[in-house]
## 1
Amino acid sequence: MNIKATFFIAALLLFGFISAFSLAYDDLPSIIKTELPGKIVVVFNGQLDLINPQAGTQQILSTNQTLTSINNPVWSPTTSYIVFEALHWTNSDTSFPSSDIFRLSSDGSDFVQLTQNMGMNNYPLWTPDGQKIIFKSKQDGISNIFSIDFDGTNLTKLTDFESADWDFWDLNLSPDGKQIVFVSDREYRVPQPDGSFFSKSTRVSIGMVDNGKIGRIEDITSGSDCGVGDFYRAPMWSPDGNYLALSFGCSQNTGEIYLFDSAEMKEDSSIEAAQKLMLAENKNQVINGFSWSPDGANIVFVNQTLLDDYSQNYDNLMVVSMKQILELEPILATSLTLNENPEFRYSSPSWK
């Protein structure tokens, strides 16, 4: 085969690849152009995608096919890097995947696996200076909080929890790096006959960070009294640290975000004292992850709408302004995506 024929075939293959790539994106949900600043990284159908609100575009960010169940992406506060967790098989001899923390640049380059140990490593966070990543690691049934440097070195244990009778999740670090908040089922975990556990309720706790260690831990909520199946989820500080938002749900009623004033929370941290934001319109709509905008002026969240028979659901990204919230105006969330395809799934947005 001569050089011209080889080049022609290669060009056809390349054209076919580009066409297939473009076709896959022709079916994406429409992104509504807005004046909202920054970019939003989000999990879309198990991969990392980058949404540019001003350009009205959505593009693939992660292409590593060995990773599954990508979750909890978080922007660095100082650079264009993103950390996230994902399941992957470390070798062909293992029956179960390992969950590790990964890092990559927002242009898809410089992909690095930060944690290397077998076990479950989840909920990565950046320190305010962008030099370290804090995360939860579960080894031998016991969860603790660790930190690791930007390059994956200097693994440091920050807590000394010794009990496997309770667990925690949904970590978030305050903007000044002095407090870490998380959700746990401490004192609410019920053992089952098969050896598993059922969490009948949860609480939100804050750990004080001092000299690189997490010391005193204070509960800012107790288990709520709305019945079995009520949960706090995803506590998250505003960029200025003045507010703490979290999702809360009783049974199927999970379309609510509650907003705590950080100063007033010291006096009364009960869920009744928080400002309740009904972001979902009815019981068939639930909140599946949210994030503050970089300037704290808006909140983006995943609105998941379920059909009446719960046979299918579809996700959309929506935005609500803090101005509406603080001035007690009617909360009118605006759509960032237009999706009516139940096969398209969004979760875990992070805005920068």
## 2
Amino acid sequence: MTPPRLSRSPSPAPQPSMAPAIQGARTHSPAPTLAAPPATALNLTTPIRHIPSETATATRLRSLALSQMPRTGGHKREPSKDADILASETGRASQASRQAGPDSSPGISAKARGRGVAETRVKNDLRRQIEQTDFWKGEDRPGLIRMKRAKGDTGAADATCLLAAATLVRDPKLGYNPKMKFHSKLIRQDDGSCMLENPETKQVNPPIDGQRYVFVTMPGTGPAADIRVCPMASGGHGHAQVSGNAPYVRYAGEVIFKDGKETHATPQSGTYLPPLENARTLSGLNCEFTSKFPSDPDQTK
């Protein structure tokens, strides 16, 4: 038996648009749809590369350039080399040098090592000679005042005493350093007035009235004694500089002038600490001495 035949119903006809047609209007075709690429599985084992910024890149390049530059100063601290350099300055053989041998010291030449040892020996020899001088032993000389070593607030510092003792070692006959010229020489005129002569320029000027001067009477006898003076000022030169670091002098103190003549003097010297007795005779100054200056410099009492 033949099955009944089904009939297909016709599709409905398109209905006309009810909107009025606009003359000159453009019609847009829909944009084509791009097909998505086929999905692929992520490879989690592959590391993701990080791209540094421009600042980080420039900093890295600068550090690499600096690491390749040669060093212009300093050296790597190595205990053996530093010990040898220190030993050359002090004249002692370091433990590293003794173990390595005398000719295998790194970091310093044999010439430099020998020079350092020689300088140390000279200093040690000078120190031994200083300790043998009568000045360092605290012995006095007849008719002279010895520089006093510091005790409390008075006396000369140890460094000043070392320089004074060294002058005896280098020139025991002269007894002072002639290169130190921080003073003027007092020259007595026929009328009793005084003039001050510069030891370098030989220029002569009268002393300033009322000005305090540091004075030192150098070793000598009678009128031939050299009297050195220097104006007192804040931070100025003291008796040790004026005397040329002389360990022994005839006298030292301070003096005031008026009208070219000395009017008042004192034995105030923290370096030599001279006594007040016989001050006028020992100093060679023609004025009265007191232990301290009065409040009025014009008084000679």
